[in-house]
Amino acid sequence: MKETLKTMVVGVGGQGVVLLTDLLVEAALLAGIPVASSEIYGLSQRGGSVTAGITFGENTNGFIEQAGVDILIGLEPLEAQRCAAYLHRGSTVVIDNNRILPYVVNAGNAAYPDIEKFVGFLTAHIHKVIYITDDLGSIKPAVRNLYVLGKLSKEKVFPIPYECLIKAIHNIVTPDFVTASLRTFELGRNN
Question: I want to staple 52 with a disulfide (CB 3.0 to 4.6 A). Which of 21, 60, 132, 136 is the partner?
Fold first, then answer.
């Protein structure tokens, strides 16, 4: 891989932002792709906003500047919307419609934003938007992030080979979740 590719993973605590970041870094290393990741920003405890940056390619660092994200992985739509300033016209965005309502919405003090309107805006202004609205009721929340990765892994812009992702899942995911993780990843790839 000769050029750099900047990726941001966003969600809330409990959705697996940290796991997905670790998995992408491991898979890149297995593929021989230079990689760097930023610290995970935010409250990684359940419900807090969490953001991580990953850069693939030569002379990498995990720092991501505004209008510098090539791939945005939004495990929660509002968190993806909060990171819109990091996108540019050539960006690819994957957003899982897995809404986790913030406290102010649950308390009735604010309304959850119109995500379909946001997706429409993105579709008109950036290269590619993958908005996941599939019914994933049977998928355990702990592995839902791998469904999102499965969808993204089919995209031309995604730099990591399939085989390295599979090996990284075996290496990173706890043994109790490997089978469910692989099944969910493959489901994302095939839907």
Answer: 21
